[in-house]
Amino acid sequence: MKFLIKYSSEIALKSDRTKRRLMHILYTNLKEALKELDFQLRKEWFGMVVDAPPQALNILRRVFGIEIISPVEEVQFESLEELLERGREICIGKVNGKRFAVRSTRTGKHDFSSRDVERQLGALLVKAGKVDLTNPEITCYVEIKGQRAFIYTEKIRGEGGFPLGSEGRVLALLSGGIDSAVAVWYAYRMGLDVDFLFFDLGGEQREIALKMARFLKETWGYGSRGEFIHVPFQKVVAQIMNVRPSYRNLMLKYAFYRVSERIAQERKLDAILTGESIGQVSTQTLKNLSLLDRSTNTLIIRPLAAMRKSEIIEMARRIGTFDMSYRGKEYCAISKKNVETHGSMEKLLLEKEKMDWSVVENLKPRILPLKQEKTEEITPEDLYERTIIDLREGGREIPGAVKMTLEKAVSSFSEWDKSRRYLIVCEKGMKSALLEEMMRDAGFDVISMSENRFFQTFRDSNT
């Protein structure tokens, strides 16, 4: 099956030199996208022609730089009569019983005009359907290029944009939530390749973020060389607990930006990409975003800045990331109440002095493969043998568990019995992971998990 591909306006309107560069990148990305299929790919000045199985269409629709995809018949002809006969053969079954129109364009020297093709082919097809030039149900397109013609009846929209990788590479802060994945998609469409940066606050978000990064790269990132960079951040969170509660969220974002800038510089990347949108949460008020921008000299790109949450969710559904997204509250392990929405740099820097900043400077990022890692198997018997510390604010009761807040646990665990084995449970696994990290450093035998995983372990043991 042949497909005629039309370049996006971002390519078509460029100078000849730039257009050739973008066409070459698109050509390379298409070969990467179709590598699992038996295909042939041909460059043309007006587009590209792909000869591939029908399932290639779903792939072509996800390659950035393509505006229109049309399943076509490519016809060689010597005379107008031969062209018209081939046009009749191709189109007559599709116009049967329908209102139709014929549209023709022509490049080259011929003894007929585009208007001649439209009138005469329409006359041959009128026996099967009814001509309607204003509101046709089917349009037969005839694009004539010298002694060749491309005949088709469908124009399927591609995603447009620049070919991925044509505008450089950025560092994307991927949280595993709804917004950051959509921001990556827009970066791809801007022609940006993306390295994923995940700050691990504990819990199950790393698995979600890995799954999401893999999906984005495999489904939309044809031609991408992006990697997944994992930064363990629990010890930084422990330091941020020394900051006044109203500034903890801001301090966490400030630390994110500072570490991101360092990694971007090491990888020679010119910008940081985030899923921030004005006014969405406490750290994303205009005042706080402005404050955070001043904490780095690196360009911050925010594709979603002026989008409403409903628009972002709609986009996440369309690109396929919504169902896998984490949908918890913003940084619930740090601060929930009385958060600062109009912070000042002076106060932020004063709060920074309460932290051991060397913990931030000495972080060791590592590259993780873009695939799911197996979760450590924990048996119900192992859980029964442990002292359970329940950090949740509510929820289903855990018999025998000691219930307390994270703040109380952090301030008191040093007095607990080290001969015991502990299990920490919280809503999403983030608070419990933070406490686990601190207790392990102090020599405790401790594991942590979210309440979903905790109760799932018991359910599986009873089935």
3D structure, described in words:
The chain has 463 residues and is an alpha/beta fold. The chain has three domains: 156 residues, VC0802-like, CATH 3.30.2130.30; 200 residues, HUPs (Rossmann fold), CATH 3.40.50; 82 residues, Rhodanese-like domain (Oxidized Rhodanese, domain 1, 3-Layer(aba) Sandwich). Helix content is 38%, strand content 21%. The strands form three sheets. Strands 1, 2, 3, 4, 5, 6, 7, 8 and 9 form a nine-stranded mixed β-sheet that branches. A six-stranded mixed β-sheet has the order 14-13-10-11-12-15, with helices on both faces. Helix 4 crosses helix 5, helix 6 crosses helix 11 and helix 8 crosses helix 16. The longest helix has 22 residues. The protein is elongated, with a radius of gyration of 29 Å. The chain starts with a strand and ends with a helix. The mean pLDDT is 91.
Please give a handful of descriptors for the protein shown.
single chain; 463 residues; alpha/beta; VC0802-like; Rossmann fold; Oxidized Rhodanese, domain 1; 9-stranded mixed beta sheet; 17 helices; 19 strands; 38% helix
What is the H level of CATH, i.e. the homologous superfamily of the largest domain? HUPs
Any idea of the CATH topology of the largest domain? Rossmann fold
**Which architecture of the largest domain would the CATH scheme give at its second level?**
3-Layer(aba) Sandwich
**CATH class categorisation of the largest domain:** Alpha Beta
| Strand content range | 15-25%
How many DSSP H or I helices? 17
- What is the general shape? elongated
Task: Please tell me how large the radius of gyration is.
Answer: 29 Å
Report the sheet with the most strands, covering strand number, pairing sense and barrel closure.
9 strands, mixed
Low-confidence stretches: none
Number of strands: 19
Provide the structure class.
alpha/beta
Tell me roughly what share of residues is in helical segments.
25-40%
Instruction: Kindly report the average pLDDT value.
Output: 91
Total separate domains: 3
Termini Cα gap? 50 Å
